[in-house]
Amino acid sequence: MTSADGGETYDTLVQELVAELAALRIRAGNPSLRDIQKRAEKLFAGEGVSLAPSTVSGLLNGGYPSRERLLWLVRTLMSWDRTGEECQPPGNGAPELDPWHNRWEAITHARPARQRQGSGPKPAVAEVAASATKPSPAPVVAVQQRGNERAVDHFQHVQRPGQPAGKRPRLRRAVVYVHDIGATREHYEMTFNRVYSRLSEKLPGIDVRGCFWGQESDPRYGMHRGRLTGFGSGRTIDEDEAAWRVTRDDPRYELRLLGLRPLPSAGPGRRKKRPQKLLAELSRYAASPQVRTVFQEHGLGDSLDTAVQTVFNSSDLRAAVSTTDEDGDEHRRAFARAVVATALAAADPQGINVSSRNGRDALLSSLFADLLERKDTEGSGSGVADIFRRQRGDSLSALMTRPVGDMLRYQARGHPLRRLIRQTIETTSGDVVTVIAFGFGSVACVDLMVQEQISRVDQLITVSTPAPYLYDIGALTSLEPSQPLPDHFPHRWLNLYDRRDLLAFSASQVFPNCVTDHAVDNGQPFPETHTAYWSNPDVWSTITTWMN
């Protein structure tokens, strides 16, 4: 039944419009709000188009549209075909726009008189309330604080006619879980089922979705083909190329990652002797004639000695060798790659550029082989023969663990993963979304939310995140160390970490006034503590209390 002022009919028509716009957006390939803004500016530059992400979010979530903005949005969405390719949008008077004119006119006719005339109560401003209960049809504007800055979430809807002033509509909340690196399908499903059951138990009725980005996920996203499976396993050529892309801009990146590892298990005396022994070996290193010949053939003869000295004198090398294992071959290879990358960077201003994969591999292989020949192999057998047996064949030797390889691949090709996370969020039900991101999955989420405005995400929960460390050393893809988080970043961020977890970092020290840190005790040593969060009751009580 329609109310006296037409309120119920208006609500119904608005919800129908929201559904039609959502279907049109999905047909266009589900573009992000930022993509819609850029596309509209490109298409309709002469029409004075203004489709900011906040405006688009309001239209897609039930805000009352002006005719021109509604048609701009519709025409923009129609400028992508079903495959996501760009196409020519309909003109202003095109007949396919007639249904949208009709929808707007019906909504405007049904719009309650108090809203049309500007009388009655003004639109309410309230905080977004997390809820797993029965949804209210429309969200409201959310005002929150970040430091001294005032930020408004873009769920812009007017107050319902007849709704008591100050009453907060409760919003449907959904959760998206993003896992850590190195997860197989079986491990992901086991962890997701635990996350799902705990949240469903504490927040009945909440919608929980998972974002699986492992080797068995949709191949369109290009992640985890030929996944690394541990030390000594094969690495595909694509993965080796990814490693070169990262070290080209950051020559000592692999050394820093090795420095993050836990110290190897051994008695105190032996643990101390390994780094000393490797450092002494590297300090005595002088390139052989064979290595010099290879470097000279590629125009790098003058850069070799300086590059060796630069890498050897770096603090990154000191930190890396402290985690060396029994034979140290992985660390030698990282040292060799850092030297090659440093030499390439030094020669680049002179116009010397070794861009071919074969050229880079020849430089690395010659230097690495030389290092292996020099190492003290007493009691370790024929280390050189063993290493190169693994290196030959259809794939290159990994000489690094799965996490290191996955981190390098994300740093080089992170966009497909971020796109997958965004699409999972955008296809999740609920008015507002909480993202729970674990381990390195949290790095991808932070990068995504820095680079794009994901309006429905108002809460971010990171568990065992290395993102603060990467930001602090300048290795976070989306943000320079001197840059603050953008204002569109979720204004509620909870970060959980166990002090025994060497892969987890406090975030409030580098992102002051933006995040709430909470230390938990998983009751396990490292590395077991890294995977013990989901069985810790304190983790779940903290998460659910904070969400509410």
Itemize the secondary structure elements and their pairings.
Elements: H1 7-27, H2 33-43, H3 53-60, H4 67-77, H5 98-110, H6 113-117, E1 142-146, E2 149-153, E3 173-178, H7 185-202, E4 207-211, E5 234-235, H8 237-249, H9 253-259, H10 268-283, H11 289-297, H12 304-312, H13 315-321, H14 329-347, H15 357-374, H16 383-391, E6 396-397, H17 402-412, H18 415-426, E7 432-438, H19 440-451, E8 457-463, H20 467-472, E9 492-498, E10 516-520, H21 537-547
Parallel strand pairs: 3-4, 3-7, 7-8, 8-9, 9-10
Antiparallel strand pairs: 1-2, 5-6
Helix pairs in contact: 1-5, 2-3, 2-4, 4-5, 8-14, 8-17, 9-13, 9-14, 11-15, 12-14, 14-15, 18-19
Offer a quick outline of the entry.
With 548 residues, the chain is α/β, with parallel strands linked by helices. The chain is built from 21 helices and ten strands.
Number of domains: 3
CATH superfamily of the largest domain: Alpha/Beta hydrolase fold, catalytic domain
CATH topology of the largest domain: Rossmann fold
Q: Which term fits the overall shape? A: globular
CATH architecture title of the largest domain: 3-Layer(aba) Sandwich
Radius of gyration: 28 Å
Number of helices: 21
* CATH class type of the largest domain: Alpha Beta
The strand count comes to 10
Helix content: 40-55%
Give the termini distance in whole angstroms. Answer: 35 Å
What is the arithmetic mean of pLDDT?
Answer: 75
Overview of this protein structure:
With 548 residues, the protein is of the alpha/beta class. The protein has three domains: 7-117, no CATH class; 173-219 and 414-547, Alpha/Beta hydrolase fold, catalytic domain (Rossmann fold), CATH 3.40.50; 234-399, no CATH class. The relative contact order is 0.10. It has helices spanning 7-27, 33-43, 53-60, 67-77, 98-110, 113-117, 185-202, 237-249, 253-259, 268-283, 289-297, 304-312, 315-321, 329-347, 357-374, 383-391, 402-412, 415-426, 440-451, 467-472, 537-547; strands at 142-146, 149-153, 173-178, 207-211, 234-235, 396-397, 432-438, 457-463, 492-498, 516-520. The chain starts with 6 loop residues before the first helix and ends with a helix. The chain is 45% helix and 9% strand. The longest helix has 21 residues, at 7-27. The strands form three sheets. It has a six-stranded parallel β-sheet, with helices on both faces. The chain is built from 21 helices and ten strands.
